[in-house]
Structures are given as structure tokens and as C-alpha cells.
Amino acid sequence: MTRVVVLGAGIVGAACARELTAAGCAVTVVERARPAAATTAHGEGNILVSDKEPGPELELARLSLRLWPRLLEALPDPEAVEWEAKGGIVVATTPEGAAALRAFAAGQRAAGITAAELDAAAFADAEPHAVKDVAAAVHYPEDAQVQPAAAATALLGAAVRAGAVLRTGCEVTGAVTRKGRITGVRTTGGTVGADAVVNAAGPWSGEVAARLGVRLDVRPRRGEVLVTAPLPPTVFHKVYDADYVGAVGSGEAGLQASAVVESTRAGTVLIGSTRRRAGFNDRIRPGVLSVLAARALRLFPSLAGVPVMRAYGGFRPYVADHLPVIGPDPELAGLWHATGHEGAGIGLSAGTAAVLRDLMLGREPEIDAAPFRVDRPAVRPEGRAA
Amino acid sequence: MTRRVVVVGAGPAGLGAAAGALRAGAAVTLLDAAENPGGQYHRMLPGAFAAADPGRLHHGWRGFERLRDHVLGHARCDWWPESAVWAVERPDRGVPHVHVLRGEADGAGRARHVLVPDALVLAPGAHDRVLPFPGWELPGVHTAGAAQALVKGERLVIGDSVLIAGTGPFLLPVAASLLDAGAAVHGVLEANTASTVARGWGRRPWELPAESGKAGELAGYLGLLARRRVPYRTGRAVVEARGDGRVEEAVTARLRPDWSVVPGTERTIAVDALCVTHGFSPRLELPVAAGCALRDGAFTEVDADQRTSVPGVHAAGEITGIAGAQAARTEGLLAGWIAGGGAPDAPEAVRTRRSRDRARAFAARLAAAHPIGAAWPGWLRPETVVCRCEETTYGALLSAGGDPSRNSAHAVRLGTRAGLGPCQGRICGPTVAELLPDAGGNPHHRPVAQPIRLGELAQPPVENPIENTDRKESAR
Ligand SMILES: Cc1cc2nc3c(=O)[nH]c(=O)nc-3n(C[C@H](O)[C@H](O)[C@H](O)COP(=O)(O)OP(=O)(O)OC[C@H]3O[C@@H](n4cnc5c(N)ncnc54)[C@H](O)[C@@H]3O)c2cc1C
Ligand SMILES: Cc1cc2nc3c(=O)[nH]c(=O)nc-3n(C[C@H](O)[C@H](O)[C@H](O)COP(=O)(O)OP(=O)(O)OC[C@H]3O[C@@H](n4cnc5c(N)ncnc54)[C@H](O)[C@@H]3O)c2cc1C
């Protein structure tokens, strides 16, 4: 039986562990902290096609959308994952925004996505508490959501029940290699032997790659989310701002904020999210939260009196060309990567695991995996040493 | 240039800190979310004290009034009532910035302010800690602090037959103020056994004379209970509350030193209210947001001069240890003096440090006499509610924590919703952390320290208002 060690118990590691265990591999998941405690517990659970332009990421998203219902069906308690196929509505509030949104939606329709423009009355009907004065609104019925930590731990639980071994509190420190091949990983809990190693360490996968002796340009991109007190039903779809606009005057490096407003099963409303470069600095910036609140109020002015109870943030695993990294490492035989999903890893985890499994077993993946390969310039810049 | 010190919290510690900083020559901005200064101390006085021992305790009250009047009337002090600190921001360099919402909490449109001090004193105090037990969520079961507030603020008698239970010396002033308000107190139950209490108080007896004032205060309360024929029992606890829609009966039981129930000792008594307290949970979200190191994960770590691990940030009062109002005030005086630029070796600093050390020794004694027994989860049943906001049960927590693929604080919280309700885990957070010791996480991580409305958050802040020259006027 092929022994696979998966590094990281976030949603990507969990999905890969489940898929590889089901395919007959002997899987060990090595996690330095605890399951779903890092990025996976610090974002939102949107599973979107609406924000993806036609191309490889959209194909991976569509594959994932096909796989999610099957994954959920096989779980003992699918309800716990809080899957909701509620659909999304993208809203533009300016004429330029509206033109760009219409052009974007037309491209997606050509690629087979359902994207229906709503007139003002239809939008007011769909979201009675939202701003009335919109320049354009497009409905994407395929958009869905999950509770990300529940989804990750459910997939991990499925892997463990099928025989995978979970080792928490165990940090990867280096590789064991023989004749140019990785044969195991060194960890703070001893050496774990492997025929194959999957690097699914999220925003830390660049650092983990370096420890294993290879280069991988994955970086953190900070994002914050606001959580309101529970409300009676107020927001019915996922409602997004069409444009990520630079927030002038916030004094933050490269801050972008584009509101995604959605309600959760518990009645709280989540308002995401910002994007900024802050390294792994996890200090909350009130000025950044303020910009996010202002964006959300443009979509839902009626929420002005609603209390924010909590704010949290995480680090999206980011690659310069905005595509995930899925495949074998050409420089170290036996090492694989499944990372770099930026702000879409929850949704894309299902498709990523399936593609990785097929590549590892030498099968043809359902979608073209070449765009996600490891030896592309954005992931492996020339002339930079590990 | 005058040093600007911001003091968060105007309880005994914060008032002390303001006085200390003023004495050192600094300009002080003193903030509290409440309308009046005094913190918990104000809330319980003077009723409780008057009832127990008017002479001695009124002396303490007058001391408090003098301190308050001195601080609020001082020309270099700016008093900001109804000013909630909702965030503490760590800049790349320098002292943390203090984000404040000013105005009535339920009024419309509080203004957002950002204070940029030369030094910061954190004195946000503590709130009651209550351990769960079956039926604790029934109406009529109060925390000691809530009972106190009802009696004091609304002059309500909370019941005709009240049982007070839990652990700690604070059971006594609670009993006193309920008696003062006219309630019939059925009894006071201290969960620790007589030998635990005696051993704790008996530690290092040579230190006791120095704290005789404190001990005398407690003796005064015990005397009051005796005069009113209210029994004080040790080694007994309320392990269940029952009733149809509100508490009607309490089940009490004898406890072993580890708080496990001695089988067969259960008694059922009719009550119409129950007050429970198991000590205090320090409010640690502000020190945690400021980046301050904690001591054993439970209190803010401070050095001999009340400095935290973050330069320019000082801490005083119950966030550094539970030792009562007098200790809080003394710590505050020292913290404020140092924050205000006072010399650490000035005679008053030396004196204050000495009485602070005595107070700390007293606190250690308290903690030893009234520990929380490790076997308390034995009182729980699978259906017992642990998080009252979200109605998460003990059974739900155990099944999440018992599954290695789910046992992480984040996944447990999101999966069971424990700690995600309006109180944001202030009540159940320490309890959940004790029930699931391997789940990790920091129960005090709460970067939004007070709820802030979206509309308030979206507004830009009023620019650094402590730069105003006309400070005294702008505070009005
Ligand atoms: C604000 C915000 C909003 C988001 N919203 C969405 C959304 O709506 N929809 C969506 O699909 N995605 C969203 N995302 C993105 C999504 O959260 C991530 O893409 C996804 O969680 C990444 O999962 P992961 O498993 O790769 O990483 P992680 O969850 O970070 O898991 C990696 C694991 O590796 C472990 N690890 C690291 N180093 C080591 C080591 N040396 N040894 C052992 N273990 C190690 C870590 O402890 C961690 O548990 C959002 C992200 C943010 C920050
Ligand atoms: C029922 C009861 C009985 C007691 N009996 C006695 C007794 O007999 N003898 C004795 O010595 N002690 C007694 N105490 C304890 C005594 O009251 C405390 O030791 C003392 O008040 C602690 O002082 P502090 O300044 O640390 O905190 P607190 O008194 O709690 O003051 C903290 C202040 O900070 C404010 N605050 C907190 N967070 C924020 C924020 N984010 N923004 C703005 N403001 C904030 C609060 O509003 C509060 O006013 C009793 C306490 C209780 C509850």
C-alpha cells in the first residue's frame, strides 16, 4: 500500500487525506497545531463561481461544485457542514461598475455559468433590505456556502474512519531523502516514512517547501471579516460588491475591501472581506474594519444600527498568478503540492483533492491540470534559491 | 511636555491609577463604560457595608469618595463616563492606541475616538465566574454580581427565600446586601471543605496581622450572618436547580475536597432564588489585544512596578489577580505613578509597593482557601447547558472534544456555537477551556472588546481628542 504523508490539516489537507484514503493509500496527516485551526477557521465558506473568470480556476470550481454534494452525502452527519445552495447576487453601484459586471457575466455565460441579470424590482424582491439604487445586479444560482471548519473536520473524520492516521501537535521540520527522492519527513514528533508527501500547509506551504529543500512562492495575504449579532432573516443570498476598490486614505499597504454580505444559519451576518499585505502580522486594524463596514453599508444601509460582535482574520495562501498549485514537484521526486488557493480554498478543496488523486495514481484528471503545475514562473521564479 | 496617561476603567484600580499619575504630574484621561466611577465597588456600596459593620466599612467608603472627588475634580484629569474601549490597536512602534466609543450604549450614534497616549493603564476589572450545573439557566438563578446589581440599582428584593452558594469571601458581602434589602437568606454554602478553607487562611500566619483590616472586614460579615441566624456551611454546594419555568428547588450535596459529591448527602430545599458565584474572571481582552503576556493564561503578568510585558502599558486591579478593592486601589496608585513618569524609588512608591505586596500575599491566601475543585464537571449531565447564549450542552462539547479530528478550539466553537453568542464566551469561555483542555485556543482573544454598530464603525474617528487644549471643557 502506498504510504502518503499529508502535511497540514486544513481543509485542503483534509480533502486530500479523504480522497487518498478512499483510493487505497495508507495516509498519515501531520499537523503542527490542531485540525482546521488555521486559515480554514479564519475565513468564510463561500463556494463561488460568480467571482471567477472563464479559465482554469473556474473549471476547478465547477468540478468542486459537482463533487461537494457527493462528498456530503457520504458523511454520517451532512447537516453539520451547513451546506446551503442559496445563490449569490453581485451588485454594481456605479455605471462603470455596471458595465464591467455585465461584460464579466456575459463571458461567464459563454462558459456555461448561469448568470441572470436582475432589474431593480427583481433585486428588491430578492433582497428587500438591500440598497434600492443599484446600477446592475446579476444572480448566480450556483453559488453555495458551507461552514468551513465543520467541512474540514468532517472530511478529516471520514479519512480517519477509513484508516488515515492523524498526528496533531507535530511540526514538519525537514525531509528525509534517498537518491533524489523524498522517503519521509522529519517532525517534532519523530520521523515519518513515506512513499509520497503532499504539502498542504496553506499560507505556510512556501516555508514548509523550503524546509523540505525546494522553492515554492506562496505568500500570505491578510483578510478580515466582521460578524454581527444574530438578526431575524435580513440577507437572503450572498450579496457582493462588484468591485474591489483600493481604499484611499486608510494608510494600509495595498488595502482592498469589497463587501460580501451573507447570513449564517445562526442568524449572524458575516461581512467579508479585506485584502492586504501584512506578512503574518495578525494584529487587527480598526481602520481596516472601518473601511469594510463602510463598504457593507453601501449594499445594506439598513444594517447601520446592527452591532458587530466580533472580527477575525486569516492569511490567504496567495500565488502571484492567482492560481492554485496542484501537482508533483519536478525537483524532488515523491513530493506533491496542493496549495495556493488564496480566497477560494474552501470551495476548491473538493476538486483539488480529486485532481491530486488522479495525478498521483497516474489517471487522467477530469479537468486539465497543466495550469496548476508546480514549475510555472509564478510559483518557481527563476534564479531564486530555496 | 506633560505626559499623557490614559486609564481604562474607573473602578478602585483605575481611580487609584489616575490619582497616581496625577501625583506624578501627568495629564490623565480616565475612561469607563459605566456612567459613574467606582466599578464593582460602587455597585455594591454602600448597602452591603452599612449592613455589616457601619463603623469600619463606612470608613472604606469615605476613603473611596475622597479618592473619587480628588481625581474627578483635578485640573489635569479628563473624566470620560459612558466611554467604552472597543479596541486596542498595536502600532508598529510605540504605545498602543485606544479606540473609544463615547455616548450612551443604547443611544443612537456614539462617536468614535482614538486616543494616542504616552502611557496606558489598563484596569478593566473582572466579572463573576459561575460554573454550570443542571438547571443553572432557570430564571431565578442569579450570579452574585447580578443579584447585587438588582438589589442596589433597582431596589428589588430578589426572593423571599434565597440560597447563596459557591466559593470565595464574596459570598459574604452578597449575603449582607441581600439581608439589607430585606431578603430572607436561607443559608450561605461554601463549596470548599472547612479544612481547605482553614489551611488556605492559615498559610504563613505571620503575614496575617498586616492584613487585619481585611480579615476584620470578613469577620464583620460573619458576625452579621450570625446575628441574623443565617447558617454558613462549608463543604456543601448546590448541584442542581429545579423548577417549572423558574427555580423552585435547590438540590444541595456535601462535597469532598476535590468537589466530587458524597453520594447520599443530597438534600432538596424549596427556594425562590439562588445566587451563585465561583469567584471572578478577569477581563483580559484588552491586555491580550495590547499584546501583554499572561501569567498561567489567567491574569495579566506585571513586574514589581505594575508594568506589563508591553512597553508603556501598565495593569492594575483584578486583571492582575483577585485581591479585593483595597489591593486594586494600591496597585492602581503604583501603576499610575510609574505610568505618569514618577520615580520607581520615590518614598511613596516604596510605601505603595510594600502595601501592594501585602495585598498580594492576602490574595494568594484567598486563592488557596477558595480553589475550584477539579471534580466539578461530575455535577454535569449530557443535557446540561454550558453556553447559555447558544444553549450548547455538555454532551455536545464532549462529543466534539472526544473526536480527535474535531478537537480544536476553533472547530469546536464553530461546530457547537459555544461562546459565539452575545456574551462572546465571557461566561462560558473559561469553563469550555477547562472541559476541553486539549483543544487549544485563547479564550480571551476578543479583538472587538465591546459591540460596535456598523454605522459607528463606518464613521471616521474624531481626531485625537486628547490634543484639545480645552480638555476640561470638552469633557462636559
Ligand atoms: C478573510 C478570508 C476569507 C475567506 N473566504 C473564503 C471563502 O469565502 N471561500 C473560500 O473558498 N475560501 C475563502 N478563504 C480562503 C480559505 O480560507 C483558504 O484558501 C483555505 O482555508 C486554505 O486551506 P489550507 O488547508 O490550504 O490552509 P490552512 O487551513 O491554513 O491549513 C494549513 C495547515 O498546515 C499547518 N502547518 C503549517 N506549517 C506546518 C508544519 N511545518 N508542519 C505541520 N503542519 C503545518 C497549519 O497549522 C494549518 O493547519 C478565505 C480566507 C480568508 C483569510
Ligand atoms: C458582589 C461583590 C462583592 C464584593 N465585596 C467586596 C468586599 O467586601 N471587599 C472588597 O475589598 N472587595 C469586594 N469586592 C471586590 C471589589 O469590588 C473588586 O476587588 C474591585 O472593584 C476591583 O477593582 P478593579 O478596579 O480592578 O475592577 P472593577 O471594579 O471591576 O472596575 C473596572 C471598571 O472598568 C470598566 N471597564 C471594563 N472594561 C471596559 C471597557 N472595555 N471600556 C471601558 N470601561 C471598561 C468597568 O465598567 C468597571 O467600571 C466585591 C465584588 C463583588 C462583585
TrEMBL record, chain A:
Keyword entries, A-Z: Oxidoreductase
Name assigned to this protein: FAD-binding oxidoreductase
Cited Pfam families: DAO
Molecular-function GO terms, alphabetical: oxidoreductase activity
Spans through the membrane: none
Domain FAD dependent oxidoreductase: 3-359
GO CC, alphabetical: cytoplasm
Automatic annotation (TrEMBL), chain B:
Span of domain FAD/NAD(P)-binding: 4-332
Statement: the UniProt record of this protein carries the keyword Oxidoreductase: yes
Residue stretches in coiled coil: none
Domain BFD-like [2Fe-2S]-binding stretches: 385-436
Alphabetical list of SUPFAM superfamilies matching this protein: FAD/NAD(P)-binding domain (SSF51905)
GO molecular function terms attached to this record: oxidoreductase activity
The keyword Coiled coil belongs to this UniProt entry's keyword annotation: no
Region (Disordered): 455-476
InterPro entries from the UniProt entry: BFD-like_2Fe2S-bd_dom, BFD-like_2Fe2S-bd_dom_sf, FAD/NAD-bd_sf, FAD/NAD-binding_dom, Metab_Enz_Cyan_OpOx_G3PDH, Opine_Oxase_asu/HCN_bsu
Keywords tagged on the record: Oxidoreductase
Name of protein: FAD-dependent oxidoreductase
Organism encoding this protein: Actinomadura syzygii
